[in-house]
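FAQ

Q: What does a record look like?
A: Structure on top, sequence underneath. For example:
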């Protein structure tokens, strides 16, 4: 794909990202998805110049123009992430049905990450919708991918279920459900690379904050953000040797 097409796809991704960030901020709060955007603090209706992806955040220095309240860096982060996701996923999976489904699944991960970041919630209806699209992808990918997905889902769910039994305060029930969906998407061969990377990313975020005293050991970590990031990265990564070895082992 020529470079100018990637640039165009990245711009499209920025706009999609802005919409996904709005979903992440509205769905858990019970705010209707349609309608104009408002500042969550002062309720002022946002104008066109306050709605430009990333740029508005930078120009307003991360604060509301009307009341000065801090705007979460989640918004520009989700927008930038989606700007990378759209061209990267289309390169990886193509423009056909597989590419479209993988992109829709990636968008679900963006909304889940945003929702967990902003509210510490992984909404059931987004997890359910993600499960449906993932199941559809597995059904279209053949019986091997389907059974590998079911096994991966069981492994991911059981693994985090064991964690929550051992350390009930460490993670939430939403994280356990999400790990099941991550496993379904990743399949048996890639569920642990995805979960492993998620935990490494979570530790890379939390340990410096703990060391600096900005977080306490019992503070809740938005694990959904890292589960999303880990899943998206492993989905994009080509792991031919590892997956071939594990698929051979798994028959
Ligand atoms: Zn405001």
């Amino acid at each position: 794909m020529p470079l100018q097409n990637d640039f165009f796809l990245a711009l499209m991704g920025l706009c999609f990202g802005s919409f996904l960030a709005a979903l992440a901020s509205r769905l858990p709060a019970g705010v209707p998805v349609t309608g104009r955007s408002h500042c969550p603090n002062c309720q002022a209706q946002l104008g066109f110049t306050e709605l430009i992806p990333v740029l508005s955040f930078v120009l307003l220095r991360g604060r509301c123009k009307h009341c000065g309240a801090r705007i979460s860096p989640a918004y520009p982060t989700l927008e930038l992430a989606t700007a990378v996701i759209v061209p990267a996923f289309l390169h990886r999976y193509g423009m056909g049905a597989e590419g479209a489904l993988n992109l829709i699944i990636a968008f679900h991960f963006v909304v889940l990450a945003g929702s967990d970041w902003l509210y510490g919630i992984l909404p059931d209806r987004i997890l359910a919708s993600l499960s449906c699209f993932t199941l559809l992808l597995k059904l279209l990918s053949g019986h091997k991918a389907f059974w590998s997905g079911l096994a991966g889902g069981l492994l991911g769910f059981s693994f985090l279920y064991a964690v929550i039994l051992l350390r009930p305060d460490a993670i939430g029930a939403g994280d356990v459900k999400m790990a099941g969906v991550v496993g379904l998407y990743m399949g048996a061969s890639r569920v642990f690379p995805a979960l492993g990377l998620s935990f490494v990313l979570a530790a890379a975020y939390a340990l410096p904050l703990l060391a600096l005293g900005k977080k306490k050991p019992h503070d809740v970590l938005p694990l959904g953000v890292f589960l999303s990031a880990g899943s998206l990265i492993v989905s994009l990564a080509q792991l031919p040797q590892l997956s071939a070895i594990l698929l051979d082992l798994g028959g």
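Q: Is there anything notable about this one?
A: The radius of gyration is 19 Å.
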